[in-house]
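in:
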């Protein structure tokens, strides 16, 4: 495997599960495109968009204090969580198929969001158990990102074709994919929390300079992503063919994210995770300055692509940093906490252009300034921050004890 990916069966199984989960998510998004839940457009009233941003935080309010710890304690480990989530997501989609024109769609959509975040947390917690060593973490996280990007792109066509028949048919396809994901998850290795209750050791690792600095950088990146998405959504309304430009920007951002997931492992071969995070912030700062000077729609779309690619690279580095830098932490609880913080950063970033509606150049300048400040602060705080090798060794021993035979 030239890119350093682990040539082991568990990773192939996890990739298959992730692909099937992505099929379900893609079909659900397409099926609900014309529903009440996803009918909020960039041209909607600002109060509706602000309400949407507030609602997007709600699932994390459940995931962080309740679901995260439950993932770590569940009998059968994180594998059981993925199986349960797949089964429940299938049930939710079947229920959606019968309630597309009902207000019951809202609580079902809320349940779908919670289950989606629960799966994302469990996936991040599982990855360290299916790689041979820490050097493969970025490559493994990257491969799963590639699987999701390619699967989502490929499945968009058959899902959209089914949508011409009925939204119910599209949702049933997604339900079948979730059932298949649950069945495939049964072959994943059993993995339970590596920490039997030593909260002090967990807190020490999660508050180490390396992890804290990586988390701060990731929040900056997520905030910029949220800012740029809604900045383009509102700013392009006043431009000719604004809706088409915005759709093009979303498409380019998606391709940039996919490309970043391919490039991530090769960057890791050349630099440390901390350098990847710093480079992501610097790239956004430079692109923001260039877009401000150019001040054109194309420049804004290019900036959005750079931002999403940089955020994807940063996420790979961040997840690897947490997975290797906090080996004794209850990963379900840890990633639930980080996901909540990242989502709040995305929402706060999005609120700024919604509330202030800056011009294109002013918005690009804000991105540049935040990128520069984020990069400078990361370099300043990251100097001298190195992983605690003795703690890591303890975590590796604990991890080895935490994998009972299947």
């Amino acid at each position: 495997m030239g890119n350093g990916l682990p040539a082991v069966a568990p990773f192939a199984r996890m990739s298959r599960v992730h692909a099937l989960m992505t099929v379900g998510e893609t079909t659900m998004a397409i099926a609900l495109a014309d529903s009440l839940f996803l009918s909020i457009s960039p041209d909607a009233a600002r109060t509706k968009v602000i309400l949407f941003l507030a609602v997007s935080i709600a699932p994390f309010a459940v995931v962080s204090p309740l679901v995260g710890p439950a993932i770590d304690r569940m009998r059968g480990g994180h594998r059981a969580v993925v199986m349960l989530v797949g089964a429940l997501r299938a049930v939710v989609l079947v229920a959606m198929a019968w309630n597309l024109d009902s207000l019951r769609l809202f609580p079902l959509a809320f349940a779908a969001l919670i289950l989606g975040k629960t799966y994302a947390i469990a996936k991040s917690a599982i990855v360290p158990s299916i790689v041979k060593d820490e050097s493969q973490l970025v490559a493994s996280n990257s491969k799963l990102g590639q699987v999701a990007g390619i699967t989502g792109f490929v499945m968009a066509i058959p899902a959209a074709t089914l949508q011409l028949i009925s939204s119910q048919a599209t949702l049933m396809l997604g339900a079948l994919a979730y059932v298949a994901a649950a069945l495939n998850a049964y072959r994943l290795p059993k993995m339970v929390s590596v920490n039997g209750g030593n909260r002090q050791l967990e807190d020490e690792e999660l508050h180490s300079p390396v992890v804290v600095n990586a988390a701060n950088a990731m929040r900056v990146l997520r905030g910029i992503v949220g800012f740029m998405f809604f900045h383009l959504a509102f700013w392009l309304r006043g431009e000719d063919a604004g809706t088409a430009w915005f759709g093009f920007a979303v498409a380019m951002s998606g391709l940039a994210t996919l490309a970043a997931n391919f490039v991530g492992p090769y960057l890791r071969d050349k630099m440390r995770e901390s350098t990847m995070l710093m480079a992501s912030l610097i790239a956004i700062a430079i692109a923001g300055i260039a877009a401000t000077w150019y001040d054109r729609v194309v420049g804004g779309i290019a900036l959005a692509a750079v931002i999403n690619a940089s955020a994807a690279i940063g996420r790979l580095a961040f997840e690897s940093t947490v997975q290797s830098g906090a080996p004794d932490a209850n990963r379900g609880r840890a990633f639930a906490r980080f996901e909540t913080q990242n989502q709040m950063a995305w929402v706060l970033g999005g609120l700024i252009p919604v509330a202030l509606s800056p011009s294109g150049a002013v918005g690009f300048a804000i991105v540049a300034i935040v990128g520069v400040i984020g990069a400078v602060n990361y370099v300043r705080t990251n100097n001298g921050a190195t992983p605690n090798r003795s703690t890591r060794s303890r975590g590796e021993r604990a991890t080895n004890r935490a994998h009972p035979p299947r």
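note: The chain is about 80% helix and 0% strand.
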